[in-house]
Amino acid sequence: MAQQIPLSPDSVVPVASDPDGTHPVAADLAYQRHVLVNVAYVGTPGAGDRNWVLVDAGVFGSGPAIRRAAAARFGADARPAAILLTHGHFDHVGVLEDLARDWDAPVWAHPREIPYLDGSTAYPPADPGAGGGLVARLSPLFPRSPVDVSERLHRLPEDGTVPPLPGWRWIPTPGHTPGHVSFWREADRALIAGDAVITTAQESAYAVAVQEPELHGPPAYFTPDWAAAECSVRALAALEPDLAVTGHGRAARGPGLRAALHALARDFRTVAVPKGRG
């Protein structure tokens, strides 16, 4: 299994759950775990209809929990202004079609991710030998087929802006998928990293269950381009974030987060890339 970069205890954001089932990490940012993946909610509590954004759309079956959290956090009938996607893997779009339809919400993604979101292209096969661990060995069973939200699909602008989220920018972080992006807010140095970096060993069922905090590169079994993934980690480290919400694992912040990111960028080929890959 790939090695890890330890996260210092003071860099791990305590898991304090709101009554809505989310874990707040900033005044207008919270995340919620759905079995093995996180979704993020961006918006001030009580913001109301069309005044918040959902980032990623969980695994199959997570729809009721996402709807309950959204209603409790933003208002009973509060629909999102948009659903933003870091990428289109099954555990990030599990209930995307249902939520986008029922909320009549636009979906925004990178142009290179569009084929996996308009029903036209399946992702490449998983690599069960990458990274070791039970989850990796089971990865050939994970869905690869595309979802189809073409009627509501929008391309993120080339200038890096995020139209539904003023003050945020999208950062290209390919490698895990061709069109993977992360979302960045300079004002408070907040990062929503998707799977470009994660804070648990996603290849291991035990690690997924206990959420032991440590910094990793992207889930190895679904990462075909390790050279691009390395460049993406370097780009995120260069941002010097103060807060990171990742697609898997607990949120992290402060000097410990930055030190771990720089260590991962420096030693990426040793600690993140599985033997014989990249």
From TrEMBL:
Domain Metallo-beta-lactamase intervals: 36-248
Gene3D superfamilies, alphabetized: Ribonuclease Z/Hydroxyacylglutathione hydrolase-like
Alphabetical list of SUPFAM superfamilies matching this protein: Metallo-hydrolase/oxidoreductase
CDD domains: yflN-like_MBL-fold
Single GO MF descriptor: hydrolase activity
Statement: the UniProt record of this protein carries the keyword Hydrolase: yes
InterPro entries: Metallo-B-lactamas, NDM-1-like, RibonucZ/Hydroxyglut_hydro
Pfam families associated with the record: Lactamase_B
Keywords: Hydrolase
Protein name according to UniProt: MBL fold metallo-hydrolase
Organism (species): Methylobacterium oryzihabitans
